[in-house]
Amino acid sequence: MDKQPSQPVFHIGSIPVHGDLILAPMDGICDQPTRALFREMGSAVTYTEFINVMDVPARLNNLDRRIAFSPMERPVGFQLYGSQPEQFLTAAKLLLADQPDFFDINLGCSVRRVAGRGAGAGMLAQPQLLEETFHLLKAEIDIPITAKIRIGYDEEHRNYLEVAELLEKHGAAALAVHGRTRKQNWSVPSDWRPIREIKQRAGIPVIGNGDITSVAEIDKMFSETGCDAVMIGRAALGNPWLFSRVEKTELPKEEILAVIQRHWNAMAAFFGAEKASFTFRKHLKAYLDCPQFANLDYKPILNNLEPVEALKDALKDA
User: Fold this and answer.
1) Hey, what CATH class is 10-244 in?
2) Annotated catalytic residue within 30, 109, 227, 290
3) Most buried residue, 6, 27, 69, 229, by most Cβ within 10 Å?
4) Structure pTM?
5) Known binder of ligand: residue 19?
6) Is 234 among the annotated ligand-binding positions?
7) Could you read off the pLDDT of 181-240 as tens digits, one per residue?
8) Do 23 and 43 form a contact (C-beta atoms < 8 A)?
């Protein structure tokens, strides 16, 4: 991996961040073994999968497993989603006992079950609610509060400047900005111009996000937006080398296999082999979806309860 700079690149509140590439929080992807691996490979900050604030009081839906982290992952942010200021505050107060470095408020999730009920990106349509939430958290919580936003709810309500200014005014310590509205799907190219506009006006760190799939696009995002860091989401799956600014296509097959083995071992230890075999499928498919394995029929391997051993056997027979 790249050696991260000894001097901080930026700060989240008083927390130094020694790098400028960050793994995006992705539900169902960013479990603890995956986050730890990507942190080792160069991701500068750790975000958990998002946590429903209503799950926190009774610690429902595998909360303990979702927020588990190792010391080397710091700085660690617990990402929260909800729609009511008081519920955010209750959850944050309870989670302080688990010792996160900061809380991140999810204002970017666009899926119907979240945004459709006014949480995630659904909150972007309610600036007053955002103001109340951040004002309350800033007043009551003594660690930094950050946010991940989209550029608006829809094309008619691209209120990213209003939202960014409001969040900073009410205590946000950093903003990650995804260049799509809540209504736009992945087929619509990410618009980086709002990221640049927010960065030009903000007095806090701005993290750019959207359509980063290569080292060249990382450099382009920095050049076009002036952002403090780049957050990488979907393209990170099966490609932790991107956080070391190394193109996966340039790697020997053996190096990819070694990281696959490490990732599998960590997931099997964390989840148990049976559950890990299901959870690991999406990762393994992404690892193998590259020119180095172009001639491998890996579909049968994905359903194996010992996928890495099955992969090794398949490669011997290839």
Assistant:
1) alpha beta
2) 109
3) 229
4) 0.95
5) no
6) yes
7) 998 888 899 999 999 999 999 999 999 999 999 999 999 999 999 999 999 999 999 999
8) yes
